[in-house]
């Protein structure tokens, strides 16, 4: 018994030492000035951010969706065959509405406007985002402070460190869950019904907001005053889920100014949505996100939002 207690004490001591060293390193890094590494232009397609990239030694320029709702890269199986990229293993991936089994190609080189990202894993799906060659997930946000300026149509990458956000805008604390950025928000379907939740910050989604089925059922959103205006569906990597579409009285990200009369989708039954448990309450898409220029700083676990004067120009 004493031996077991000793081993547990030793383990806790080692863990504390490792955590302390990591915290010291993180604190030291935050005291260093953040430096600009690159400024990368992007194209706007239906409000979404499109980056021009190359993979490995292939000269072909690919148009990739910048997708903070994904933890990695993805291209279609057909494109992978064309580029000579081969799968090395398989895994189950979570997509909106369910799960999909995907193949993974390991050890690829991503070339982004003269910037190289080695040893990248790429998921190979049957289909990917329409109008693009694939998606780039949180590879950038995990390694850099990422500033997205819709007005200038450019992404700036800064080293982690002491970064100055400027006087405009407001910061919202976020967390990283399974490689995905999650933000706190409050949904008022009706003026007198406030429901707090955690929502994926998803620049790769083409909607304003979708609430996932468990959150809809828990808060009885479809029967507590919501007025559906249409039926629709959302598709993610080949998984299609029906939705009821309408408007919410208000939606508030963190402590930002509430957005009034915002279009939303409430996930209905159908497909695999009934058994799907995503661990978050919904997804904030690019139509809402593009109301702001924003800076993602995962070292400080926050996103700094600056309201745009003319978001309709995206």
From TrEMBL:
InterPro entries: Peptidase_aspartic_dom_sf, Retropepsin-like_bacterial. CDD domains: retropepsin_like_bacteria. It comes from the Bacteria. This is Retropepsin-like aspartic protease. It comes from Mucilaginibacter jinjuensis.
């Amino acid at each position: 018994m004493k031996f077991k207690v000793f081993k547990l004490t030793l383990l806790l001591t080692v863990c504390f030492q490792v955590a302390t060293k990591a915290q010291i390193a993180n604190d030291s890094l935050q005291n260093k000035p953040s430096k600009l590494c690159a400024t990368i232009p992007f194209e706007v397609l239906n409000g979404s951010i499109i980056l021009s990239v190359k993979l490995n030694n292939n000269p072909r320029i690919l148009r990739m969706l910048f997708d903070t709702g994904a933890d990695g890269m993805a291209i279609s199986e057909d494109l992978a065959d064309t580029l000579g990229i081969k799968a090395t293993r398989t895994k189950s991936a979570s997509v909106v509405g369910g799960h999909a089994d995907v193949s993974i190609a390991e050890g690829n080189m991503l070339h982004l406007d003269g910037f190289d990202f080695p040893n990248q894993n790429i998921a190979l799906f049957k289909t990917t985002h329409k109008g693009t060659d694939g998606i780039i997930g949180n590879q950038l946000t995990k390694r850099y402070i990422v500033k997205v300026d819709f007005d200038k149509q450019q992404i700036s990458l800064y080293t982690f460190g002491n970064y100055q956000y400027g006087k405009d805008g407001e910061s919202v604390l976020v967390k990283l869950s399974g490689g995905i950025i999650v933000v706190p928000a409050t949904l008022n379907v009706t003026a007198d019904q406030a429901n707090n939740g955690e929502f994926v910050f998803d620049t790769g989604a083409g909607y304003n907001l979708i609430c996932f089925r468990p959150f809809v059922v828990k808060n009885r959103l479809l029967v507590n005053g919501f007025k559906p205006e249409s039926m629709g569906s959302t598709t993610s990597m080949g998984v299609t889920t029906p939705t009821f579409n309408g408007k919410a009285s208000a939606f508030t990200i963190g402590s930002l100014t509430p957005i009034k009369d915002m279009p939303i989708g409430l996930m209905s039954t159908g497909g695999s949505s009934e058994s799907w448990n995503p661990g978050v309450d919904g997804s904030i898409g690019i139509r809402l996100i593009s109301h702001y220029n924003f800076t993602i700083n995962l070292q400080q676990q926050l996103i700094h939002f600056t309201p745009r004067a003319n978001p309709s120009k995206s």
